[in-house]
Amino acid sequence: MRQSEAAVVVGIGPGLGLAVARRFAREGFFVAGLTRTPDRVPAETGIEVRQADAADPIGLDAVLRSIENDRGPIEVLIYNAYRVSIGSPGSPTPDDLAADLQVNVVGAYAAAQTMHSLMAPRGRGSIILTGGGLALDPRPWLSAFSLSAGKAALRNLAYALSEAFKADGVAVTTMTVAGRIQEGTAFAPDLIADAFWRLHLEGVSAGPEVMFTGS
User: Fold this and answer.
1) What does CATH list as the number for 6-212?
2) What is the pLDDT of residue 72?
3) Is 50 exposed, middle or buried (0-12, 13-18, 19+ CB in 10 A)?
4) Is residue 91 pLDDT above 80, yes or no?
5) pLDDT, tens digit, for every residue of 181-203?
């Protein structure tokens, strides 16, 4: 059964991804959460979890188009997938780094391409990328060097795609979470999820980047 509006969270998990999915479901969206391991995500009303690999652009495109056909139109895409090879700078192998960037950057680009092709004819839509403060300075967590590099590239991607897609009414923004996501703090998943919702409401006026500082 098709719904009036759909939101997709690529990289749903028990933390921020699920909190964002719940937030959009509460607003009446049908929400599809995509993950490689669906059994790790608890079943909840209004959220349908599907298997997908963010490192596989062809498969990701197929799943997004399937959701559009079955449940769409997709009004919002949140790209929350990431991969990290823990190790000091210089220790991850080139293959490790390439695999991390495939998920952290290439997957985001592939998802954005697909969604732009679906959203542009309607003249509206939101693509929100989960960024991080490590994009600005990797030194607070040097052992996550490969993630820092990916978040920096993701930030650059958001700026470029925001400029390219806004004429079509499609908003691309990175939510730069400038702190450690943790329950019971100013960086609790539910608080960040509220910011994602507000960002969607702002549309293209939000610009390419919004900083979540916990204040």
Assistant:
1) 3.40.50.720
2) 79
3) middle
4) yes
5) 999 999 999 999 999 999 999 99
- 172, two tokens: 């691309």
**Which tokens sit at 60?**
């990701």
The span from the CA of 83 to the CA of 102, in Å, is 9
- What is the model's pTM? 0.95
- Scored b (16 or more CB within 10 A) or e, 18-43 reads bbbbbbbbeeebbbbbbbeeeeebee
- Cα(149)–Cα(97) distance, rounded to whole angstroms? 9
Q: Compute the distance between CA of residue 3 and CA of residue 71 in angstroms, rounded to an integer.
A: 5
- Residue 143, amino acid: S
Over residues 147-177, the pLDDT tens digits come to 999 999 999 999 999 999 999 999 999 999 9
Q: Which two tokens stand for residue 164?
A: 């390219």
Yes or no: say if 136 and 91 are a contact pair by the CB < 8 Å rule: no
